[in-house]
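EI: anyone free to look at a 117-residue chain?
SC: sure, send it
EI:
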Amino acid sequence: MADDRCDLLCLDLPRAEQIRRGLDLAAAGRAAVTAKALGNPTRLTIAMALREGEELCVCDLGWITMRAENLVGHHLRSLRAAGLAESRREGKVVFYSLTATGRSLLDAHLAATQARA
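SC: here you go
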């Protein structure tokens, strides 16, 4: 038998059903979208740069991450769609920063990965 499965059926049906009824599948879906946004190395690097720089334009982020500006823009759109980054325009320049949610999630993720190292 595989090490990741029980050798016999040991289902505690009342407990399992109570837990299943209490799960919010919509919230799990939303959380998965935000977690996925940091699951890409380039997006994670961009988020880390925004945490350090607080507010940066695509030109700066392209230089910092050593990625093309159009690729950085693509990843910034993903971070914005997930609610982790926001932007503001000043004349012809668009500045990006992390949202409070983005900063919290990034900090928690980095703390968890450093604790495992």
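EI: The mean pLDDT is 90.
SC: 👍
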